[in-house]
Fold:
Amino acid sequence: MKRYLSLTIALMLGMLGGFPGVNRASAEEFGGNPLRVGKVEDLPEDFIMGVDASSVIVEEDSGVKYYNFAGEEQDVFATLAESGVTHIRVRVWNNPYDAEGHGYGGGNNDIDKAVAIGERATRYGMKLIVDFHYSDFWADPSKQMVPLAWADMDLDTKSEALYAYTVDCLTKLNEAGVAIGMVQLGNETNGALCGETLWPNIQQLMQAGSRAVRECCPDALVAVHFANPENASAYANYAKQLDRHEVDYDVFASSYYPYWHGTLENLTTVLTTVAEKYGKKVMVMETSYAYTIEDTDFSGNTIGEGNNVIQNYPYTVQGQANEIWDVINTVAHIPGGIGVCYWEGTWISVGGSSWEENAAIWETYGSGWASKYAAVYDPNDAGKYYGGNAVDNQALFDETGHPLPSLQVFKLVRSGNDVPLAPDVLEDVHLMVNLHSAVKLPETVEAIMNDNSRQAISVTWDVTGEALQQMSDGGVETYEITGTADGLSARCYVHMVRRNMLVNDSFEDGDIGWTITDLKKASELYVEDKVTDSLTGTKHMHFWSAMPNSVEFTVEQAAENLAPGAYQFSISIMGGDAGETDIYAYAKIDGEQVATAPLTITSYGSWDTATIENIDVAEGQTVTVGIYVKCAGAGNGAWGKIDDAVLALMAE
Ligand code: CA
Structure:
């Protein structure tokens, strides 16, 4: 609940006019929004500020209440419109119900839900983006399943069915008076749609959908939607295929999740290429970012503790706002860039106090990502892993239904919000200290500022000299120390470790100190700078080779002038596609191998650590420790990562 406290203080400051230099009208208009938000220059008046709100109806059925910025219960669509949102996106599944009428979950989003959501969006002056999945349940790059009712149709019959279905749905929306701004021909259709995987077939279906939209909604834009913009050649190919088969569309839309989808520079390049080469409008159709690492509904989140993803922003409300700002600013400056749509901004916890309580609600109302009833359609995924909400920490409302200040970014980008530069969150400090050495805590901690820049700021640690001395005198242990820096709480973890006799033990200084012997000419064998693939720090030893039996190498380091005694050595590795392997850590005394310990590689993120104990070293002897790796290779070629070597006295 800490963030509410700081938010309350910031709101009070805002109401007192406490932000120097802030535009007075702006401060009043936004009720003292505490977030630092820049003005996006040259932002078109009609830029689409979208929020996917597909889950709202089942959320309300589940007992969820939504509030406005004054803390009063209010139609969530009114709050969205007041915050600058111009378009509401809604997914449409053909028939997400089993034969007994049980919903598959994920909002049970059939056309009736779209009509109900569209009517409310229209009431508050917003337009609808209709996201046809042309499936009975979730469609994305991993699956594009054909609706059950169309399963046995040949391509021509299915195309006519898709046309008739699209006409029927759009007619229902038109008859309900829904303002339709855009219609999507499928969702994240990376090389598949409606069970078809050949481009001529996919595009015959898209063309049938497009024809229906042009006839029913001549004023609406027709969009195609893909994911994984980090794969530039795939995007170039999608656009080329659409052009070759003369699909009639207006908008080439992309998902952009910064955890996985490459840089904003790359996004700019791939969308600019499509926009200029084919004369199309472009937009980001889905993006989102976590405002907290906490799960709020007892159902684990896509972005949670222990995730190994690229984190360009802190998991705070300001971090979420900065992500949205960056995507809007990027698309606004792409030629033909027309808008950004935030994915599932209103999908929050259903509010039960246990998993069991929530599970009963998800199953009854369809407010989890999938219910057990989905097994009849999607037995291998939904049927096995059905449950709650994996993105509640990425919504634009908190777990009690109150809007986050980040929701107002859609409006604030037009004027800016002149909040002074200040630390948003502090990075944890990890201090490795050799046993019996003095524990010296850092005088500064790294702050991520509210403009996403970084600064070292001074910190006061809440610890006594006596306690630090006890850490130094004790054994191998990790201690947590708290502190304060600029009003924020700081944390330092002191790891008391045996003194490591190796230099550059985590490859942070490249290959300094290490001898790399490539026995089979691997395609790639070098120190790589990639934080997500490192066990600690940002670098590690990387290898990959496409050809079979081309991975065989050693990486080793010699240590001289050691104090006599018994030592231990450990080293870690992960990798995959390795086929048959022979991998082990080894220790040599004066060039003669004295011990080995086996290692295995299985899959990404599964680190294996080998430890060799009781390496007896006498006066004047040289110890050489290292890792031997030999892989036959499989799939796309053997690959792996090696990190964190430690050679230390066993007893100190
Ligand atoms: Ca969750």
Summary: Residues 295, 297, 299, 301, 388-390, 392 surround calcium ion (CB under 6 Å). The first strand starts at residue 48 and ends at 52. The chain is about 25% helix and 25% strand.
